[in-house]
Specification:
Blueprint (H helix, E strand, L loop, with lengths): L7 E3 L1 H11 L5 H11 L3 H13 L6 E8 L7 H7 L8 H8 L14 E14 L5 E4 L15 E4 L4 H8 L2 E8 L3 E10 L4 E7 L6 H16 L15 E2 L4 E2 L19 E2 L1 E9 L7 H12 L5 E12 L3 E13 L21 E7 L20 E8 L2 E2 L20
Helix pairs in contact: 1-3, 2-8
Length: 408
Amino acid sequence: GAVGNNHHVASPLGAWLLLALCGPASTGHLREQLTAALGLDVEVAATLAATLLGSCHPLVGAGAAVWWTHAQKNTEALAGWMAGLPAPAELDAWAKERTLGLIEKFPQLPPGPLLVLATALATKVLWDQPFDLAPARDLGAASPWVARLNHVLRTPRGGAVLRTLRGGHTQFIAATERAGDVAVHTASAGDEGLAVTSVIATPGVSPSDVLAVAYDLATVVACGGHVARRSLFDLPLGDGPLWTLTEKPIMTTARDRREEYCTAVLPAWSASSDHDLSADAPGFPAVAAALFEMLGVKLEMYAARQSAFAKYSRIGFEAAAISGLRMLGAPPRKRAGVCRVAELRFGHPYAVVAVATDDRSGALISSLQTNGPWHGVPVFSAWVATPSDANDDSRSGWAGKSGRGRTM
């Protein structure tokens, strides 16, 4: 809700981790506000955040840090809270290291800090199966993106067999209460890795509804849960706003003599975003007030921002986000300046959610399956409104093999 409906990438998880780490500093009505924003008891949320940050995931790097000027009295409450947080580091160097070099600069926050806190999340993975390239016209004549692009991405041939053997691409039509029938595609990277799900609804469905549905579907798909899929035999043949449905005679062993499957065509894309979380993001006003109270100074100014980057290509997915909160000792002096506003062009936007998978058992029997703390946790989300031209990317220069990326 705080980042708007334009083309963007964000990590709500990164903002949540920041609030969760700060939560134990709150008391009274501020703690009640943070509990509502976090969706969990403050102490439970702080424990969960510490578990995620302290548990190494194969493909999702995570970190947190605090920088303290020592200009104010180091209260007992402050000392106790800071004891459980990482040691200071240079802001830009820390940001670059913790995001695999995807974000080189710490989010631009006003000067004059008393306290700076930050969380970082990053991933850089190869798909289990790279996409094929397809001409942009395969997006359909109704898409205005066709005139802007040369090539798009198509799920690889033989995907049904390969998916059964080693993961890869999954696509289907799902029935949802909030957004109606939606088209869903998931690309996977590693058994203990990342599942990136794209969800598109018919034009006119609000972005917030599509993103909400995408979060629900992405988590269920990543965790192997049940999704209300539509049978293609219950849908009309021909062209629609989200798919083209055809029928052809085949030889089959199916008992009801009917088979169905889906393919998917979607654009490559990238996004670089900077989000102001100070006022609109739930929980940040409360956490700022709690930290000022703990510092023993009157409520003055604070700033909270998130810088995020993501790229979705033929061969893989990379994304990173830095979420920062800076407590200010005095308001900065305002000076005359210029504001530029860019209006993004988009055609038929859709939502993307990247969810971590964390099956650590390797068991073939589901009852013996053991999941790590990252299993089913949404890490990044995006609203794709400005696609990129797909190209025949080389796998060289990407970390890891068979879908596995660097950890931090």
